[in-house]
Fold each of these.
Amino acid sequence: MDRLSVSEIISKIESRDTFEAVSSDYSFTIKIDAYVPYACAAIHDGHQFRKELWNNCIHTEYERWYEEDPETKHMVKSHPIVIAGCDSRFEYDLNRAPEDAVFETAWGKQLWREPLSEHMKAKSLQKHACFYKVVHALIETLESKFGFCTVYDMHSYNWKRWDREVPTWNLGTSNLDHARFGDVIEQWRQSLSEIEFPNHIKSTSLINDTFQGNGYFLKFITNNFKNTLVLATEIAKVYCDEYEQIIYPEVVSAVEVALAKRIPEHALSLHKSFKR
């Protein structure tokens, strides 16, 4: 893996080079093993939290981990194109618009002992902006090459905090064109429901049950590119103990193996149907 500037990463994408890199500020990673009509993203996988913010942050390290999406990059690591965040959403949230990306409160609790200076905010927002420059270049290149592409936007959520039964998988689709994509959204939901888990974990999948797909990542791509479908795919955190901060690697591995087969099958079917 190389350490590259954003301009170097974009240049490689525009030249359709294959490469694996971390951004020069270590805020995100990108891997392109081959150019295919789909990409995977794990924008909340990161846990890094820059040291100058530590003493000012009221939330504990565990509280930050609890709201992040650990292991989501691992779940899609085998795919040819993967982009993932390295930083915690508590520093800046890649799934929120720039004006909302740096939190003042988080999940009902004040985040900072003292309000962040504009300088501190600007440091975080610069990383947010750089990430989206690369996302734009990537999708522009994939659409240009293939005519249509799909982005699998991987997230996870804390299922134990709900006071009702919730699905193992949730697809957030409220900002998608259901007249155009309704059938393929349902195909993806059905495919996810068929994934088998170890440890007697039930596999269910629903659309817009726990989350509706209102994230900035989906909206940014959908608003800028008319021939790219973003599927906000949330897995309940059945792959860990949310309260003990223990990861179940056998469950993570089972998801990774299942998605290694199901994502390309679905994506290539979509490309065949929608390419211009």
Amino acid sequence: MSDCFINGIACISAQPTTDPDTFLEDIISYQESIFRSHDPNYKEYIKPAAMRRMSKSVKMGVAAASMALNRSGVEMPDAIITGTGMGCKQDSEKFLENVLHNDEQFLTPTLFIQSTHNTVGGQVALGLGCKAYNVTYVQGAASFETSVMDAQLMLSEEPNRKILVGGIDEVAKNSTLLHKLDGQIKEDTTDVINLLDSDTSGTVASEGATFMVLGGEKTDKSLAKIVDVETISAATPDEIKKDIEKFMKRHKLSADDIDAVVLGNNGDVTYDNYYKNLQSSIFSNIEQLCYKHLIGDYHVASSFGFWIGCKIFETDQVPAILKVNNVTANKYENVLLYNQYLGKNHSIALLQRC
């Protein structure tokens, strides 16, 4: 695979992450199991007339894409690739409610058109006037990583391309509650900041959007190099351990060469053993970082890990709120990311300082 550089990145999450000059200095503590993102002033990125017709995921996606492009110095991308686990759930629910309330008659098509998974990518393209390659991947919790892999393949053919890659998911009233009914979301009121100490099943749900501009050539805006990304459909904790060891070996690295590992622990006692098995074995002497006690969990939450990696390289520091062990790296050259959800959709990624 050819070189792939992150030349600009922006993140909207449940924390104040839109200011490029801050790195989790101010933390919002949530007390509920379902909470929304901390929003920027969308009027700075979207015309008010257009914003009235946009769902939350579309607003987050368009704003985050605009921020990422601005920070990379790119006006027009050569491709737009998005990943989402559930798509525009709010408009889907509104359309289905109208079907029921209006006895399947006199339905306007707008909500249906805006309910599809590729709505965000389409709206970003419309706003930019971009007629280039535009595709959306819906691969559960590996949706964002699949989008990155597509961008890597494109860059291996044409390294001079500037590719906008993003991941978006939103909270919606009914479908999110269905996840609560099947046990994916905790029942009780939860002090989310202590989520990683939980001894119950389920996690907390939120929403967010992360966009980044990828290129095959290093620029003065480059924040990190994506060395490799791998996804695994299903595996046991021991199999994942072996897969990560193979992943590192493929790049002539061992655990000793990894300066920090960013893990997707989400407080679900049923599945956090995937992470704990690694934390107590091959990652025991590595600085361990977690983030879902800050932003909650959603299908593309792993994209937040890419943002963390870029901020670490940019600032050369790690906020204490991310640290979950007592090891501190002497330098930050290699950052490994690992995430899974419900024992499936495992993803491994390696970022390097560039």
